[in-house]
Amino acid sequence: MSLVFEPAAPAAPPDAQRADVACFVGFVGRRAGRPLPDALRTQLDAGGWVTGPWARPAAQVEALLNLPLVLDSWHLFDRFYAWDERPVDTPATPDPLDPITLSEATPRRCATYLGAAVRSFFARGGKRAIVIRVGDPWPYLEDAAQRAAARPARLALLLPGMVSTSSPFAPHDPATWQGVQHLYGLPDDSLLVLPDLPDAFAVVPPPPDPDRPLAPQPEGFAPCDVEAPEPRDTSLLRIPAPRLDDAGYTRWRQAIRDTRDFLDRRQRAAVLLAALPLPIAGSLAANGLHAQADPRTWLEQTQILRSAFDEDTPQGRPAEALSQLAWPWLRTRAARTDLPQGLEPPDGVLAGLIAYGAVARGTFRSVAGDNSLPLLRDLGGAEPMPAWGLGDDSPAGRLAQRVCVFAPGADGWALQSDVTTSAMDPWRFGGASRLIGTILRAARRAGDGAVFEPNGPKLWAHLRGTLEDLLAGFWREGAFNGGSMSEAFEVLCDRSTMTQNDLDAGRLVAYVRVRPAMSIERITVVLQLGQAAGAVTASVTQREAA
Question: How many CB atoms lie within 10 A of CB 248?
Fold first, then answer.
């Protein structure tokens, strides 16, 4: 007989003004022998999934399948999700480094990419995650035929809009929601992470290389009188991380666009964080440019990054401002023990940095630079290793203008840029896009409270005052440019913002104009030596992350 302490997990009330909540959607198993506690069941019941109008079968609730579950700690995720039990081999792919016969071999396991992302999120300071499990993970070394045959069904679970056979999205019928469609009904999510996307479109990795040296141990201080045991070689470090060919990149690009378009139509308050997949060796653009030689130009020529002309939209914030790409793949201390090649995609790390920054300093501030240094001490390398410090015109410097780049500096690893994928200057800074998302969530919450109020001047003034109070708080914290509140923002909600048709249909329309402050991420100091001895002048050029 044993005594088991079950930690309390009360349902966390949503807060529309939080900007640190990340939603992880993907493939992860359910931990066996861990029944769902009453506290978590009550949380799901409050969302209508247990006894409400769109209740799911009891077995599905117990399996946490296609249900959004709010978790406030890594401990709870680890307890109820089998994130570390992904099969490496299929029955037809034994370990070539192990002479033991297949019938006698112990099945190899590795971590899921969703589990690794949630782990990094909480490790960097994240406080609240929403996990949507859409199915069990597939074997990592699945053969090409099985992977290709199962891909449409897997994408239908994750991104229903990508598959033509999927049913149209029904906003008012949560019983039909699948995968990312749940974001429509989540009131406090601000970050969306899809950790399985690169692996879903990857080509089958080659078999482990027996002659390939293991990745080096990450550098760091340790007690000199304790001999650390050598990690058991499960050949995971010899198995390559997921890589995409040209066809895979085309499918991945379409998945990112479909997800971004869904956010643009249904949930403009959220931002998609995605890891840029690793290309297979020798990937070329149409003109023969290698992906490794000039990543940004390669991304532009393959239409992964679009031009400002293509983005231009009369609706204001372009869809490209709703996504942030991260690069390169990171060799964290935890990933070295349970992920192929010891690499994890950087989207979970970026989500943790943004969540921590939102709580500690404000969501509108950049999370790049020195603020990220203390949270990245466990990084021991990357693939590929970026050549940072060669100037803004170097391949890495140019890439950092459109992609969030992790790179080592004089004081250690840091996030060097916090940007969206937008090519338009007003929307390139990541903090500005996240700030707009926070304002949209607050406006939506204010509108929800006024649903049954008479649509007239009294309601207009009340909503205008609510939004002005919110924006005034942001202005006092330095989120906006302008010496006064009238210069920093403007809120209009009166007869001029609504047509007679709007009034007759019961629609309330408010216009909000803001001037977000752009974070300075780099300062370039130019020293010019004069001809006369000792004649030295210094000019400082401040470059904004625009």
Answer: 20
CA atoms within 13 A on the CB side of 195: 34
60 pLDDT above the threshold of 60: yes
The reported pLDDT for the residue numbered 7 is 56
Q: Which of 274, 369, 281 is nearest to 329 (CA)?
A: 274
Instruction: Judge whether residue 393 has pLDDT over 90.
Output: no
User: Which pLDDT belongs to residue 87?
Assistant: 95
The answer to whether 423 and 305 have CB atoms below 8 angstroms apart is yes
How many other C-beta atoms can be found within 10 angstroms of the C-beta atom of residue 3? 4
Q: How far apart are CA 362 and CA 19, in angstroms?
A: 9
Structure tokens, 224: 């000199």
Q: Which two tokens stand for residue 157?
A: 């679970």
Tokens, residue 322: 């709703």
pLDDT tens across 524-546, in order? 444 444 444 333 333 333 333 33
Q: How far, in Å, CA of 514 to CA of 72, rounded?
A: 33
Distance CA 75, CA 84 (A): 13
Dist CA 277 CA 494 (whole Å): 47
Q: What is the mean pLDDT of residues 81-101?
A: 72
Q: For residues 264 and 513, give the distance between their C-alpha atoms in angstroms, rounded to a whole number.
A: 19
Contacts from 445-449 at CB under 8 Å and sequence distance 24+?
A: 445/16, 445/17, 445/187, 447/508
Cα-Cα-Cα-Cα torsion 293, 295, 297, 302, nearest 10 degrees, comes to 110
pLDDT at 228 over 60: no
The pair of three-digit structure tokens given for residue 351, joined into one six-digit string: 């989500």
